[in-house]
Design the sequence.
């Protein structure tokens, strides 16, 4: 290196240009030439929750048919493959989860899961979870899910495995697992009530309102059965929330055909529905869709759009181009009293305005 080049080098091997200070952009990084923003230039904004849409086509494809309970194409791990009827799901390699499109926060529900194929290395977990459960993990990985394992018939929640089924038999390929849940009245839905959508770094994101922490729901029960044989109550007095049927699948990388389970939401089941002692008889999960569509028809008949009720049928809300401009709607069987009163008052006011307008028009015509 000649003397001129050596003179151009600053302390520490940096050039004189790299060592200069930019008055507008702040001090430059060593050797990078990019300004570091000064503290006074950073704008502090309120925190918001951005949730990536797990199914990229949801914005384009729109909402599912609210009159049918199916496996959700939105709330599932992207690596899982749904069948054409969206009642079966197939998974390869690590544990991942898919859940149903409808759930409930109160009442007694029942459905069945047929273990269609596990293969040489496959495993499955079935159970119930809320919308906040991790989908890139098995049911029961966190506090938002409750699962029954095929291995040794144990139960899992919050990542903790405990003995459950007598004899540790579990279930295997070809078995039918019945799933029962009872949620007494008084629990909150804890579903996102007002969702808006935005594009962030080239991906559609859902802006969620912060959710309150769930509280224990006394009297809540989850139980399972294998081929019609009651395995007993697995969980009691767990947290409130809207719970959905869910299934998780796992295989080793060398298994190419994957593992598959098929869900039956009713009304016809392979075995009589499970009813633990002291619990009410269950309703087939498929009836959640009928309740949701009935509430939608009632809301349309009254001319009210976007009413969020609390009866417990929570539908998918991550899709539709119209959803980019409007908020999600949680259907309800009945409108709360305060909402009904407000609707009645608004209708009376509208009728009075219309009557006044008609009278003024008649007066103008007479003149």
Sequence:
């Amino acid at each position: 290196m000649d003397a001129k080049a050596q003179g151009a080098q600053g302390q520490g091997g940096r050039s004189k240009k790299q060592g200069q200070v930019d008055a507008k952009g702040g001090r430059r990084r060593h050797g990078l030439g990019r300004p570091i923003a000064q503290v006074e230039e950073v704008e502090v904004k309120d925190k918001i929750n951005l949730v990536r849409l797990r199914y990229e086509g949801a914005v384009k494809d729109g909402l599912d048919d609210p009159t049918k309970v199916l496996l959700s194409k939105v709330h599932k791990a992207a690596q899982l493959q749904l069948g054409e009827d969206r009642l079966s799901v197939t998974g390869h390699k690590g544990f991942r989860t898919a859940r149903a499109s409808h759930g409930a926060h109160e009442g007694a529900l029942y459905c069945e899961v047929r273990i269609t194929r596990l293969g040489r290395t496959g495993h499955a977990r079935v159970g119930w979870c809320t919308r906040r459960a991790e989908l890139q993990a098995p049911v029961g990985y966190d506090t938002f899910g409750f699962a029954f394992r095929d291995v040794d018939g144990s139960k899992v929640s919050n990542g903790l495995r405990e003995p459950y089924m007598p004899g540790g038999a579990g279930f295997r390929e070809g078995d039918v697992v019945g799933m029962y849940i009872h949620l007494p009245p008084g629990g909150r839905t804890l579903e996102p009530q007002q969702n808006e959508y935005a594009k962030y770094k080239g991906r559609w994101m859902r802006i969620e309102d912060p959710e309150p922490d769930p509280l224990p729901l006394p009297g809540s029960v989850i139980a399972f059965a294998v081929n019609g044989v009651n395995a007993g109550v697995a969980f009691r007095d767990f947290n409130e929330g809207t719970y959905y049927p869910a299934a998780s699948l796992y295989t080793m990388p060398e298994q190419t055909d994957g593992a598959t389970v098929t869900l039956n939401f009713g009304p016809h089941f392979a075995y009589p529905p499970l009813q633990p002692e002291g619990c009410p008889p269950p309703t087939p999960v498929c009836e959640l869709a009928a309740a949701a569509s009935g509430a939608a028809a009632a809301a349309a008949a009254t001319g009210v759009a976007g009413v969020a009720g609390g009866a417990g049928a929570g539908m998918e809300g991550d899709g539709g181009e119209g959803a980019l401009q409007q908020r999600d709607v949680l259907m309800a069987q009945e409108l709360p009293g305060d909402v009904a009163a407000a609707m009645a008052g608004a209708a009376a006011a509208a009728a009075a305005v219309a009557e006044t307008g008609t009278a003024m028009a008649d007066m103008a015509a007479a003149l």
In short: The chain has a mean pLDDT of 75. The first strand starts at residue 21 and ends at 22. Residues 148 and 155 are 5 Å apart (CA to CA).
